[in-house]
Design goal:
Rossmann fold; TIM Barrel; about 25% helix; alpha/beta; Immunoglobulin-like; 5-stranded parallel beta sheet; single chain; 28 strands
Length: about 650
Amino acid sequence: MKYDIKQLTLDEKLALLCGKDGWRLETANGKLPSVWLSDGPNGLRKRVKNEETGELTTVKATAMPNIHLIANTWDPELAYLDGATIADECLENDVDVLLAPGVNIKRTPLCGRNFEYFSEDPYLAGTLAKAYIEGVQSKGVGTSLKHYCLNNREFCRTCQSSEVDERTLREIYLPAFEIALQAKPWTVMCSYNLVNGVWASENKWLLQDILRDEFGYDGVIVSDWNAVRSGWRAVKASLDLCMPYRFNHFENVKTAYENGWLTEEEIDACITRLLAFMEKTQTQKQSVTTTKEQRHENAVKIVREGIVLMKNDDGILPLKQGNIFVGGGWFNTCNAYGGGGSAYVQSEYLPQPLHEQLAERLGDKANVFADVLPFMLRQEYELCSRADVAVLCVGTGKNIEFEGGDRTDIRLPIEQEEFIVNCAKRNPNTVVVLNTGSAIDVSAWVDKVKAVVLLGFAGEGGMEALADILTGKACPCGKLSETFPVCLEDTPTGSAHGNGFYERYDEGVFVGYRWFDSKEKQVQFPFGYGLSYAKFEYSDMQIKKLSETDYEVSFTVTNVGDCDAKEISQLYVRDVCAMVSRPDKELKDFVKTSLKAGESKRVSMNLNYRSFAFYSVPLKKWHIENGDFDILIGASSRDIRLQRRIEITLPETEQYTKTAL
């Protein structure tokens, strides 16, 4: 190793266990390099101090699409591209570690930070996070997989205990981390909350026993900012770095060492990992390969494939000709870049308004006009009534969805709902574009409009990508990474928050579509759902047995539409006669296929031991019950196109001997 632990005094070691000044690590009196950590995940957010005024400012960076939109692409290659693009800006700004991505499961649509997270499904979240990490670290910039774990609300996140049974923890909340760890993130960030009464930063069972010993993680564990309550207990649990400052952690750890509560071997284990991490920051950096313009184009490309067409009655989209009105206030001019908090990116790019972009693409075939000022209702209603098609841009933004707080409901602001309803009364050909970072209740107006398009928090490339989709220059292919319920009360957690002391995960493994599909609850738009301008047919399903629990599932997908398109096919498994309570179906694989009009392709996906297993708490193992399993191929969780049943019969000793993903 380049940096020798023997060169460090005890006090220098203890100082290394704490952050220096908010974003940097200590240097042991110049013996070690300066390491800088900065926020992500939707673009670089480096905070720097103006030496003259002392004021903190944020560097300008490319506002990439928010993580929830990347999830709607269902495309690991685009997640990789997103990570690599942000990493180039980290390199340009001397940032060593990007504090991203977050893989917290979307347990409730109320969570104010859902726009930063991938999905309600752990397999989808973990797969995309793994690719994102690989993209960032391909440039020699580190990542921080977070927030480990059970930080699924912002309400009282720094003081509330997440109370969960072990099976639910293992099946829903840990697998995304387990999958993403295959990319070897340089750091893992612990969460603020307690887990079953023990602070996450001091939880030896979570940090040492599971993360390190079971999952094999040998990198640095860092605290969320100000998450550590007891420095020495955190070190004993194998947390390496207390951020952002020393506070009293230095003295706390030193006192524990002097009293024999903490050994030098335990301290040295943390220091050894930190030194290896510091060496990576100095030896693995690659060159910058993108310009500012190329990074913007990457942002547009990702958004284009993450836009979800949710409704398109009478084929009103794509827009073709006639008088087109674009309304809805500032979302039309400068779309919602992202939610609020540490993930918000300061971009210097000012997008061209949507109506101008539509006019450029449609040319002489259409007359596109817009409101002059946001929500000048009399003017907007008049313009709306004169149009052949009205496109309304509505949504939430960083003042409604933000870190540190949860939403109180999942509806649009009341004035926006009224705006949609009143416009739809005046113009039956109304198209609604949603700028939101999480699922919302659309029941007040969805039946009154012709089309609904989910743009999401799209960053600086949103308007260009949206214009491409609305005009048919690109075919929509995004699909929902979370369920849109009919109303908040239908969700497994309802409108309830924790009591400030405890958040009980009483719904168990029934989260997201696992809840809705198992309970046969009506939803507005299901998990995995998204329309296209093309149509797809599925046929000829074959299952090839590779071993007792490994299977290759293949089928043919055909584009029967008249435009080139992409289809996201999903593989689910149902345990037909389980002795324990299991969800109706669970996602186990997915694939995105590009198809020219009229083209057919053979598609393959895979199943393994974990695809059929549940976690047995008595056995402390992943366990398969012998019996029948339905193998389901779908265009969404509610649109199963092909299915076949298989039987698995294992010797008793083999039913619970495997743990690998």
